[in-house]
Amino acid sequence: MPLRRLAHFTLLALGLLSALAVFFVAQLRFNYNFNDFYPAGDPDLDYYMAYSGRFGNDNDYVLLGLEAPAGQTVFEPRFLTRVDSLTRFIQGRRHVTQVSSPTNATNPVVEGLGVFNVPYLHPQEPARRAQDSALVFRTPGLVGNLISRDARAATILFQTSPNLSKPPGDSLLAAVRTELTRQGFAENEYHMAGKMVAQSVFVDRLQVELAVFMSLSVVLVTGLLWLTFRTWWGVVLPLVVVLGSILWGLGVMSAFGVSIDLMTALLPVMLFVVGMSDTIHIITRYVTELGYGASKRDSLLIALKESGFGSGLSALTTSIGFFTLMTSTIRPIYNFGLFTGIAVLLTFALSFTLLPAMLLLLRKPQLRIPRETGRSWDGVLGRLFRTVLARRHWVVAISGLVLVLSVASASRIRINSALLDDLSQNDPVKLDFRFFEQHFAGVRPFELDLKPGAGRTIYDLDVLRQTEKIEGYLQQTYGLNFVASPVTIIKSVRKALNGGLLEEYRLPDSEAELARLTRKVKLFRKKQEFRALALPNGTEGRLTGRMPDVGSIRADALNADLRRFLRTSVDSTVLQTRLTGSANLIDKNNETLTRNMITGMSIDIVMVTLIVLLLFRSLRMTLVVLIPNLVPILIVAGVMGAAGVSMKVSTSIIFTIAFGIAVDDTIHFISKLKLVLLQEPSLFKAVRKTYLMAGKAVIVTSLILVGGFSTLIFSSFDGTFYVGLLIGLTLLFGVVAELTLLPILILAFYRHKPKEIRQPVPALGG
After folding, report:
1. Residue 487 burial class via C-beta count within 10 angstroms: exposed 0-12, middle 13-18, buried 19 and up
2. pTM of structure
3. Is there a domain that residue 423 lies in?
4. Which residue ranges does UniProt annotate as crossing the membrane (predicted)?
5. Is the pLDDT of residue 757 over 70?
C-alpha cells in the first residue's frame, strides 16, 4: 500500500476511534467521595461497614455554626427565634433525618406513663433567660456541643441520609444558605462543616482547576514548542497527538465507570506534559535528518526507527511507574495509576501512528538557515560536554555532598495526615472547620464498638460502669470534647424519672434500681440519638464522640495509649471493645503509605535494571543509569524534610511518578548510545555524538515537563500543589544529572568492547 494511502487510512481509523472516545468522555462526571479514601480490602473497613450498618455512619452530618450579633450572647430572644426558625426549616428538608439544635434540645421528665420533654430555652419568655442559661451551662452535653463555651455561638447539627451524593447534597446546602440569607445572617456570621460540605467544595474546585491547569499547560507548551521548532507544524502536530491521547485516556476511564476525582483530575495535565516526550524526540530527529539532506520519506523512517526503540522503552518505564501505584489500597490512587499508565501507552501508539501519518501528508518543510556552529544546539552542547568532563571531579564531589545533605534532611520526613489535609491553612472551608474546633467539640469523629461479655447485656451495671470508666479516660486524657454511649441513655432515664434534676444524672447504685430504669428505656426509643447508641436487644453498644482534628501522628499516639488503657483497666470478661470509625480508617492509610511507595519504587528500579541489562549485558551500566535518576529523588526527599512537608496520601505518589518519568531521558540517551556504538568504535566519541544528538530533545522535553508540572502550584489543594512543585523539582534536578553525571559515569564505568564495525549510516552524519 502506498505510504500516502496508508496515512489516509490511518487517520480515518484513528478518527473513528476518537469519535468513540468523545462519546464516552461526554458521559464523564466529576466526583469526590470521602469514603473512597478508606483502605480497600482492609479487615477494619469490613468491620466498620458492618458496624455502620447497625448504628449508622459517623460522618453523615452537617454542622451549622451561627454567631450571635456583636455584644450579644446566644440567649438573646431575637437570636434564638431565628435559630428556631432555621431548625424548623432544616427539619422539613428532604434527606435530613434528624436535627439537634439549642432550641429543640429538651430535658425529658417521666410522669405517670408518659415522657414530657421540657425545653431548655424559652425565647418567647425573656424573663427566664438567666434561669435558662444557668441550666444550660450545668447540663452535660450542651456546652461545647450545641452552645459554645463563651455563649457567643450556637450549632445546629443535622444528620443526612447515608452517603448522600453530590446533586441532592448541593441542593440541600443551597436551600440552607438561602434560608440563612432570608433570616438575616451575613456570610461571616455562619459556618458550615462536614463531609458533605467538603465533598461539594472539592468537586466544584476540581472542575475549575482542571480547566485552568489545562489552559496554562497548553499556553506554556505551545510557547516552548515554538521556541524549539519555529514552525507551525512543530507546534500543532505535538498538540494534536497529546490532546488525542488525553481524549482516549479519559474515554477509557469513562468506559470503566470511573469518575474524575482529586487524583484522576491530574491525569490530563500529567499526560499533556509527559506525552510530549515521544513527539519531540521524533520531530527533532526528523528535522535533523532533513538538515543532513535526506528525503522526507527517509528522514521520517530514520526518525521512527531510531526513536521507536527508545520511545518504546521509555513509554514502558513511565507506564510501569504509574502502574505500580496500583499496589495502593486507596481506590483513587489505584485508579489514577491504572488509567494514567494505560494513557501513556496510548500516547506512544498515537505518536507512532498519528504523527507519522500527518508528517507524511504535509509538504516537506522549509528549514531555517542554521546559525553559526558556536551558537547552534551542537555548539552549545559541545561546549557543555567539554566543560563537564574538564570539571568532572568537581561535578562528582558536589553531587556527593548534596546527596549526603539530602539523605540527612530526608530522615526528618514524617507520615502525617489530617481530615482536610489537601486544603491550605487559610482556605475558607478549613477556617470554617477550625471554627468548630475552637468553639465547639471539633469535627473529628470517634467511634468505639462496645460488646458485653457472655451472659450480659449492654445495660448490665458492671458493663455500664466499665463504659463510664472509658468515657472518663476519653474526656480527661484522650481529648474528646463530646461523648455519648449507652451510659448516656441510662443516666438520662434516671434523671427523667427524678423530675429532670441534674444531680440525678448518674448511674444507679444497685441492680434493682437499674432494672427499674431499663424497663423505662423503651420510652426513649423514639429519640433517634438514643437509638443510635445501643441495639434494641442490648447485645451491642456504641460509644461516639468528637474532638479536634489532631492529625494522624498525634491520633496514632493517642490510640496506642487508649488500647493500652483498655487492655489494663477494662475487664474483658465484662466488656469487649474495638476502635473503629471513618477517622480511624483514614489514619490506617498511613501504615501502608511507606510500604506502597517502597514497593512502587522497587518495581520501577527492577524494571529499569532489566532493560539496561538486556541492552548492554552489563551490571556496571545499570548503576550508571540508576544513579543519575535516584540522585534527584533523594535531593527532593531532602527538600521535603527541610521544608517540613509531611508524607501523606497525595504526596506519597511523588517519588514513584517522578522516577518513572525522569528515567525516560536516560532510556532515550542509552538507546541512542547503543545504536551509535554500532558505527563508532571509540566510547568517548560515541558518548559525545549521543550527547549532541539527544541533548536538545532531553533539554526541551525536560523544560516542558518542569513547566507543565509547575502549573499545578496554582492549585488550592495542598496535595496537588506539592505534586506539581516536587515532581517539577525532581525533573529539573534530573536533567542536570542527565547532562553532567551520566556522561561522566558512562565513561568511567562502562567497558565497551568494540565489535566489527558496520558501514556507517549516512543519515547519522555529523
Report:
1. buried
2. 0.78
3. no
4. 210-229, 236-260, 266-287, 308-330, 336-362, 393-411, 597-616, 623-643, 649-670, 691-715, 721-750
5. no
